[in-house]
Amino acid sequence: MTSKTDKLRAVFLTALMIGSVFAAGVAFTGGAAAAASSNSLDLGDGDDNAVAIAPSDNLTDVQVDTDGNALAGNSTFVFVDTDDDGEYDSGEPMATNSSTYDQTTQTTDLAIDTVDTSGLSDGDYTVYAYENESLNAGDSSFDDSESLTIDSDTPSIRKATHYLNGTDDSILEIAFDGDVSSTTNSEVTLLDADGDTIGSTVTQGNLNDDDGDARVTIDAGTSIDNDVAEVEVNNFTNLAGEDISDDTVGVTIAPQTINTTAPEDVEAYAGTNVALKGNLSDSFDISGPDVGTTRGAGTGSQVYVFNTDDLETGDYNITTNTQSDISTLTLESLGLEASADADSFDTNTDVTVTATADDINRDVEAVLLDSNGDATDYTAEGTISSDGDVTLNFGAVVAEDVGNYTAQVTDVDSGVTAETDVFSAVEAADTNTEFVNIEPAARGDVASINVSLTETTEANITIGEYSSSNYQANLTVEDGNGDGYVEFNVNTYTMGNQTEDVQSAFYVPGDSDDSVTSIELTDGSSLSSPIADGTYRTSVKASGTENADDVSRLSITETDGFTSQNIWTAPRSDSLSDFPTDATLTQDDSITQGDWVVHEISGDGVFGVLANASNNGDVSDTQALLNAANYSELSLTVEQTEASVGPNADPKTLNYTEALQNGNAGVVADAENGTIYVAAALDQVNTGEDDPALSFGDDAFNASVTLNATTTDLADDDSSVSAEYSTAELEESLTQDVYNVTNAENQTITAESNAADGTQYNVLVESTDTEGDGFIEPENLATVEDGELTFEVDFTDAAVGDEFSVTLEGLEEDDSATGNVVESADDGETTTEAPDTTEAPDTTEAPDTTEAPDTTEAPDTTEAPQTTEAPDTTEAADTTEGDDGSSGGSIPGFGVGIALVAILGAALLALRE
Questions:
Q1: How far apart are CA 686 and CA 284, in angstroms?
Q2: Cβ atoms 723, 703 nearer than 8 A
Q3: Backbone angles phi, psi at 58, to 5 degrees
Q4: Where are the alpha helices (DSSP H) in 774-913?
Q5: In terms of Cα–Cα distance, which of 9, 129, 109, 5 is closest to 63?
Q6: Which alpha helices (H) appear in 152-209, and where do they start and end?
């Protein structure tokens, strides 16, 4: 179908031609002059020349302007040229004037009867006006003409786009699929996602309707309103003046725009909707890393929204069918991500989601999506902080909304979205509290109570029942970390004689986020001494409820006090922080100079004393023991044994208090296992002020630890345990003067030391005579085990015939030996066999010294051969251990068996004399 412009042009030219011919005809024939003049035909209400009507309507309100020149007796004809041939054909819709020209009043507008067009189909037609005595088939010269459009279309909304039209304003464009006209009653309503009106309804005065085309726009302000979800259109008409159906359509939001009519380069985050703006109905060619396509704005629109979701970052070039210059869109990654803070949230817990991005200070909005992907009423908003994240709180999901959800987070400025994995909202369980565990305690120790809290963070606990035990403590505990449990301690030592400071009796251990928030004693429950042993009723309930949820018993047993003490040793390389679990402990009551002496003290009824002295963990166990000693609750004394005191001398006293204060001793209280460890660096412990210094190898000591019955009121009598230990000088040496090895790995060098098991040594091996460049093995480590050291040395760099030196890098002094690299180490004295060390046949035989077998004869008396061989005697490592707790380590180079042989030799010499 030809356009209206072309048809109007054709009508105009036809009118000119007809007018010319008609004028020429009149001039030639001298007939009646025409009354109608150019632009004299008005269709419709007379305000417009052209008109559009519906197929079912008739053409009414037609007028012809006669310019006051109508001739009496002529008629004015108006007809519709239905076949567009420029002639009147019989049957074409026609009407004549219903009023006549009045020469007296000189009426210029002649009304025309209704033209019956109800049978015409959609299309554009020409309407002619003709003044003459008659209108006959074939007539083709007419006075004037106008266009008539028969229109049955009822346009609807194609799309609605909210986009930036520049930096200072935004546009809401509504594109219809056909031409529309606004009326005085036209209005557009903006709706949010819930269907609620945003602001005021936009009426016709604020609508931009461009000449009745298919595009309607609204100036939407200076920025994009992300809340606009839909538009509702009312009281628009098609070109025939018919009301079109009221319609509602969703809005696509494009927060960034490229104006292709003035090509530009724009940067945006991948995932942003970008509006490509051109001329009306333009098409856009887009090419980039993973795109090569053409898209159009379509009827009634100047924009196409380019969705950059899932596109690669990089440059995208854009041209249009009317603009060949290139606009470039550069996509970058915002890195927006979202994750739920838990896999499940109950109806008493707020749903929280963490959003992160590669940029900061970004406003974000979030909504929970149900299992169908539909938005819910649970929303949140926030700003991504300088740390690149934000926590979004949606509140708790109500019981009727439990189910599976995801959270969709949207960056407000770019429209980029991210979505969490699926998480669940579940109905919370009923409120409940119960005892998980109540650990019993000896009177004077610390009991532990663990409470479970379900759907509550506070619980009320009652310990004791005043009517039956004359004691009742009422506590409130709070679950501060949300794990559903509160574990707290009950110090049975301070439940009574420290009731002025009841916080010391009931407290959470360590740095727990839980807390005991209130403590009240029932009148009369204040005790002057530690609480008596016995069984105490305990109950627990959720705060704010009436009845107890659970009932149990706290058992407090009789105090035993200190029950035993053992002596251990450990290498000085262990630090105080290693005791007791990470230290290398050996039970040994012979303490070598440079090693730790460790007192393992067992008992009960003392750990509440230490807890109180430590202010419930505010100070170290070491300071707690010092405090308890200062309070005369505990004491630790170490005095020289009577047997090791020299003649005319007083026993020495070791100053453990000073050692504990200056860091040369330390304490670890292991209440769970009923043990206290006191470790002291013995060579750093001073003796009493008037005492001579400690003498290693000569002195022995008795250590006593006591629980004072009078000051603690925990027992009738003092409870004390003692243990003795001796001291020894450090002895360390290589076991051979000469070592024969082969040029291979794992060649053995042995040494001896009476340092504590676990003490580490090193041997340095260095060539002394070799044909090559020589060799050195500087690091060969071994640790003491039962007084022995075994070093594995790599001699693969050596050659047979090389000689070397061996240096034991001792704790006090180094010891040296030499060595040879041989073909086979089996034919000489090697460290791997060392038979001479244990058997020593050459040493005990001594034939030249004893000679005279005839003199000593008497084999029955001396039985010397059997005595000197004594293989079992010389091997006896077990023999030297003894049952008295002594070291068990032999003196290097001097065994018991050798001593016996020496004595026997002396006896033989005596017999000889």
A1: 94
A2: yes
A3: -105, 155
A4: 835-839, 841-845, 847-850, 853-856, 859-862, 864-869, 871-875, 896-912
A5: 109
A6: none
The answer to whether 422 and 406 are in contact (CB under 8 A) is yes
Are the beta carbons of 353 and 341 closer than 8 angstroms? yes
Kindly report, residue by residue over 355-404, the tens digit of the pLDDT.
999 999 999 999 999 999 999 999 999 999 999 999 999 999 999 999 99
For residue 500, the model assigns a pLDDT of: 54
What is the predicted pLDDT for the residue at 622?
Answer: 96
The alpha carbon of 760 is separated from its chain's Cα centroid by a whole number of angstroms, namely: 44
Provide the b/e sequence for 580-599 (b: ≥16 CB within 10 Å): beebbbbebbbbbbbbbbbb
Give the whole-angstrom CA distance, residue 53 versus residue 58: 8
Q: Across 370-514, where does the E strand assignment appear?
A: 375-384, 389-393, 403-411, 417-419, 423-426, 432-439, 441-442, 446-454, 458-463, 473-478, 485-491, 506-507
- Which letter does DSSP use for residue 326 in this model? P
Question: Per residue in 730-789, pLDDT tens?
Answer: 999 999 999 999 999 999 999 999 999 999 999 999 999 998 889 999 999 999 999 999
**Whole-angstrom Cα distance, residue 250 to residue 270?**
23
Question: For residue 648, what are the contacts with CB-CB under 8 A and spacing of at least 6?
Answer: none
- What pLDDT was estimated at residue 843? 38
Q: With contact defined as beta carbons under 8 Å apart, do 666 and 685 qualify? A: no
Residues constituting the chain: 913
Answer yes or no: are the C-beta atoms of 490 and 504 closer than 8 Å.
Answer: no
Per DSSP, what are the bridge partners of residue 432? 454
696, with CB counted inside 10 A (0-12, 13-18, 19+), is middle
What is d(CA 305, CA 275) in angstroms, rounded to the nearest whole number? Answer: 4
Q: How many CB atoms lie within 10 A of CB 269?
A: 24
CA distance 628 to 588: 28
Say which amino acid occupies 382: G
Three-class secondary structure of residue 646 per DSSP: coil
- Encoded tokens for 893: 């180079």
> Any long-range contacts for 385-390 (C-beta under 8 Å, 24+ apart)?
385/360, 385/361, 386/360, 386/361, 387/360, 388/356, 388/357, 388/358, 388/359, 388/360, 389/354, 389/355, 389/356, 389/357, 390/354, 390/355, 390/364
What residue ranges in 100-196 does DSSP mark as E strands?
109-112, 123-132, 144-150, 157-164, 170-176, 181-191
pTM, 2 dp: 0.53
DSSP 542: E
The backbone torsions φ and ψ at residue 499, rounded to the nearest 5 degrees and listed phi first, read -70, -10
Report the pLDDT value the prediction gives residue 120, as an integer from 0 to 100. 87
Q: Give the whole-angstrom CA distance, residue 72 versus residue 49.
A: 26
DSSP 3-state of 69: coil
Residue 149 and residue 223: Cα distance in Å, rounded?
41
- Which positions ≥6 away from 510 have C-beta within 8 Å? 617
Give dist(CA 222, CA 669) in Å, integer.
Answer: 71
Residues of the chain falling short of pLDDT 50:
1-39, 827-913
CA gap 415, 225 in Å, rounded: 11
